[in-house]
Amino acid sequence: MSETVFLNGEFISKDKAKISPNDRGFIFADGVYEVIKYYNGKPFRYADHLKRLERSLSEILIDYTKLEELEKIFQELLISNNLEDKHAGIYLQITRGVNKRVHFFPTDIIPTAYAFAFELPSFTQNLENGIKVITQEDIRWLRCDIKSVSLLPNSMLFNQAVNKGAGESILIRDGKVTEATHSSVLGVKNGKVITHPLSNLVLPGITRKVVLEICTKNNIPVQETAILESELFELDEIIIAGTGSEITPVIQVNDVVIGNSKPGELTRFMQKKFFELV
Fold this sequence. Notes:
Mean pLDDT: 97
Largest sheet: 9 strands, mixed
Number of helices: 8
Oligomer: single chain
Structural class: alpha+beta
Order of helices and strands: EEHEEHHEEHEHEEEEHEHEEEH
Distance between the termini: 31 Å
Radius of gyration: 19 Å
């Protein structure tokens, strides 16, 4: 059976979905996206994802007026693709729309909205055993707070991690840890959780927000400051956090073992509390 997708107001077979080559998402990567995880048909932190989507749209001046319809659309996609009782993800992309190729933002064009559902299981082995990561220079643009569809730098950096047998790349800008290619990075030192403050250099991660809420509720100290690259290897624990990553322990950075090469005590606590919320 063909996969059902949503495109510009219609639910259609994926093989019949057509987007103009003059769409600015194709020509300029002029668009934003979100990925929302559903656990047995129910979205996790939907309101937070929608708020971030609204902000991304606002930052690049796309006027999309149908945000209130999205939740119903997503549920229909899950049902149509027999994913309503599974762990699944919804990918949504909104671009500025179709227009002749001009560098300024054209007005009076209709945004293109495309969404699809896919299986997104918890990565049990990574969650249980932890992953190895590598460090790389953060070569992305200076508006990483916008969830842009322009992900070529992220893909290049993640591809290098894969080629080196690693599960992620931790990114370094001006000697400081920003985030990973598609996840937030949190460190633990002497019982304190440390992570880069929100700024134009990092995406406001939803799972990052959840982790900090867990810390607040459980009296775990938090320091929102950039981790120096030299400090990274001295951390007691490192966590990769994201919608797909959930709470993934890092047990090795480059050739340096973190902790005792096993997920740390605070990481395990975060996993437990995270899945209680789920």
